[in-house]
Amino acid sequence: xxxxxxxxxxxxxxxxxxxxxxxxxxxxxxxxxxxxxxxxxxxxxxxxxxxxxxxxxxxxxxxxxxxxxxxxxxxxxxxxxxxxxxxxxxxxxxxxxxxxxxxxxxxxxxxxxxxxxxxxxxxxxxxxxxxxxxxxxxxxxxxxxxxxxxxxxxxxxxxxxxxxxxxxxxxxxxxxxxxxxxxxxxxxxxxxxxxxxxxxxxxxxxxxxxxxxxxxxxxxxxxxxxxxxxxxxxxxxxxxxxxxxxxxxxxxxxxxxxxxxxxxxxxxxxxxxxxxxxxx
Length: 280
What we know:
By secondary structure, the protein is an alpha+beta fold. The protein has a domain at 92-279: Porin (Beta Barrel), CATH 2.40.160.20. Helices cover 26% and strands 43% of the residues. Strand 4 (158-174) and strand 5 form a beta hairpin.
């Protein structure tokens, strides 16, 4: 055979071998599965995550156990945040002021006056709360009683007041807890201190101003109770979920002060304090 024939045959064999090699490479490429993107992400997350994601010896290669642990940590953090949120909103506070009206036995001994109220406690549920309350009531004395208490002195410069300080525990039941405008009932009891003071205003001090002196005073400590009814208006807050409420209430207060036969007694004390304020 001549040399040109061998050259032509070799070129054909090389071409055929090249075609076979290319076909074999294509078949191999199709038979090898591509990597799972989620598995790669899990491996990447497992490799570069924070120390909160820890793998054990039985973890899968894709890091599924590590991801579960991380999810559990997130759930625990959410539960802790929710617990703190609910704990903060379980506290109750109130602040208010108003006026007092005497009734019953008190009418000859005190007149109208004002009050200041403050308190705090817990919301045990949406309907039921318990508050510890401080209240200060300041009432004036009638003219005839002032004259008698000052030994018959005239009304010129004579005055007087009755101060009542109380520390009570008062449950509160919200009758319409989900309404913007609601109502509630409350009541309780505790410690009451009442002092009756007779004063005389004289002229004058070093700077020329009138001076007021207490000429006679008596006081007592005793138990008392109260019962009341109120109306509320919920304040919307920024997102419409405010917890503050405006309130207006009236209570009946009964104080077991000493009987009038005692040296420092005027008989039982009965008042109707009306209070306006805000409660959280």
